[in-house]
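Hi R.,

Here's the chain you asked about this morning:
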Amino acid sequence: MSIKTTELPTALRWLTGAAALCSAFLAMDFLRLFSESPLLDFVITVQNHYYYALMGLLLPLCYLLNPTVENSKSIWIDSVLALTACAACIFFFINAETMLDFGWEFAAPDHAVLVSYMLWLLILEAVRRTGGMVLFALVLVFSLYPIFAESFPGPISGMASTPAETAAYHVMSIESILGLPFRAFAQLVIGFLIFGIALQQTGGGRFFINLAFAIFGHVRGGSAKVAIVSSGLMGSMSGSVITNVLTTGQMTIPAMQNNGMEKEYAAGVESCASTGGVLLPPIMGSTAFVMATFLNVPYTTVALAAGIPALLYFFGLFVQVDAYAARKGLVGTPRNELPSLAETMKQGWYYIAAFLVLIFLLVYLQREAVAPFIATGLLLVLNQISPDYRWNLEQAASFLVATGRLLMELLAIMAGVGLIVGALSVTGLSGTLVNDLLYLAGDSTILLLLMGAFSSFLLGIGMTVTAAYVFLAIVLAPALIQGGLEPLSVHLFILYWGMLSFITPPVALGAFAAASIAGSSALATGFTAMRLGSIIYFIPFFFVLEPAIILSGTWLETLFATAKVAIGIVLIAAALQTYLIGIGFIDRKGLIGVVGRILIAIGGGLIALPVTDVIDIGVSQLVMIIGGVVFAISGILMSRANSSQERSSSLINF
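And the predicted structure, written out as tokens:
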């Protein structure tokens, strides 16, 4: 049970804000030391001090901000848990250097093991309160696995450890709680989270919605296109599909309904746009930075590679929305009822300035660690100059409290996922799972990809975006990479398929959240979102089989591959919406019309399908494209209604 920020007691607001402020300065100071020191031993020692200090600041908030029950007894229990967590982190902070010198993760004294047990249990409880029961169950089972590893059957057996050895390894090694997920959070993610919160708290969401209305509001289906743009941009910064739906959706969904769109459709558009936002550079929530850490590549490499697939997905949404609006006869909002583009830019130009500074620091200077802090500082300074959105002390305090809450939640989740990493590491199970998947797939890369897609979707259900990605990157990605696929395309593949659970029934958490705003059927909204976002089911296969789409090729190869997929998207969307841009309605009734639309979809698929060593069908790429064009033209001719009366009738029955 989470307490709303506005309902926090004054003392707890002060504590949360102070923890957020100290965490931000601690992160900036560590990044300064990390960049200045050439001594590896010094860096490792400072890292461990920094990690335990950060945990000591934020972990206690998990129990105070997420009480189990709101009564006086619960307050005392939560306070004891918070103090215990802080004390445990202080113990490890004090002994950080001794732990390294004497290898406590393998031979810890009894008192250190006891404190390790305490911190292990506290992190499990923090995961339960912040990450939900699905993630908690996974973390609990995997963190206990090393104790019973030898008792499991062959394919899932591993090297066993005693409970004391397991506790010490989890808490004091750099492979478990302090493993790669936590290190990515502590070294890269904090600054970008703060930038995203600052953007939201200073009115950035309102600015992007007004900007989208000023640009797209007058065209047909304008309100839905506004939702796609604004929710995509805000989703990239927030990194949370549900949060984005519940914030931007409060404005975009009613606007779409007022424009004449059905409740399920409006909610489906918002959930698809919010889901895609997490895949959209330059920020991509926090997942891009974790991915860069996994792959040991610069963040800009990940962001640039993710750009074309994300734009193709949003292009698919745009095409479907445009076809839907044309089919329904929906017109845009009159320009005199829309925000002025000039006035919108005049009021919010500093949001664009902060973004440009961030991108300049990321792409040109490649200063990933300090870029968000500089951009946030610039944004806050410029915000105070603005007479419309200037903060008072109460608003500044709300910013710090929101920052503390978000940092606390992600720290708990990353520490919990780290327990899974540690269990797989100490038992050697990760290598066993990789070998088993490769054995089951045999020599078929397609089968391996299909198994990977299904596993990613299944394991992504009920988990946060970052947690799902980290788990999949450990368990699944190595098998796909050993199957001969490019590492970066594999990691993007599992991210995309891990995200699909947000718009795919029976779970579809993003769609269900949007349905609660629209007042629509949750299941009907889920199927509508699934249909709208249908292209996202195919794009991961396209770029993993044709890496030119993620810029792993020449510019000519990239342009050719992107153009093919874009044409395929237009044709597939046309078949789904019975309207093709430039042609018009393809909504003929009867079997002939249905077969024609199927041929159009097949033609789009043939044009977009990569012909590689993996998909060797014995024909050249040119023959595939010509075949796709023939199918598409034949389908169009079959699907065109013979008369306006037949077309009108078919619309009623659609």
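The radius of gyration is 26 Å.

Let me know if you need anything else.
M.
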